[in-house]
Amino acid sequence: MTLILTIIGIFLIIAEVLTASTFVIWIAIGFLCAALVSLVTSNFVVLAAVGIITTLLSVAVLRTKYVKWVLPKERVETAHNELIGKAAIMKEDYTSNGVDVGIARVGGVDWSVQCETLETSFTAGERVVIKKIEGVRLLIEKEV
Fold first, then answer.
1. How far is CA 69 from CA 60, 102, 142, in A?
2. Percentage helix, strand, coil, to 5, in the chain?
3. Which end of the chain is more exposed for a tag (fewer CB within 10 A), N or C?
């Protein structure tokens, strides 16, 4: 029984290495702990309990440390700041009122736009300047 549990635990660790998930490592820990306990007893209920308890404990205790220290940190660099100061073309008429948004095209992509200056009117086809980006919305003003 020890050999079977150990083989399953090692197989799960290999599966963890080959996949990008962090799911099977916790089950592998449970199987390996059950394999250690199987050196003392062959009672299936005890082995199952040890496997389940150590799996749950490893998830509860080690997961945040595992994610923080082992997994690579993904940094998504965006080039959205390059849009600031560039021109956009209004796709529709828009009058700023602090609530509604308009649509403008920048580099072939349509963006939601808003002007911080109230009661400023923009017409379809008009060039505007991007002043700032807030979330997925461009803040614009009239081109001078």
1. 16, 44, 48
2. 40, 25, 35
3. C
**Dist CA 122 CA 38 (whole Å):** 76
**Nearest to residue 104, comparing CAs of 73, 68, 136, 82?**
136
- Tens digit of each residue's pLDDT (9 = 90 or more) over 16-58: 888 866 778 888 989 999 999 999 998 999 999 999 999 999 8
DSSP string computed for 111-140: EEEEESSTT-EE-TT-EEEEEEEETTEEEE
Give CA–CA dist 81/131, Å, rounded. Answer: 10
pLDDT digits (tens, 9 = 90+) for 109-142: 899 999 988 889 999 999 999 999 888 899 999 9
Question: What global pTM score does this model have?
Answer: 0.45
Identity of the amino acid at 92: E
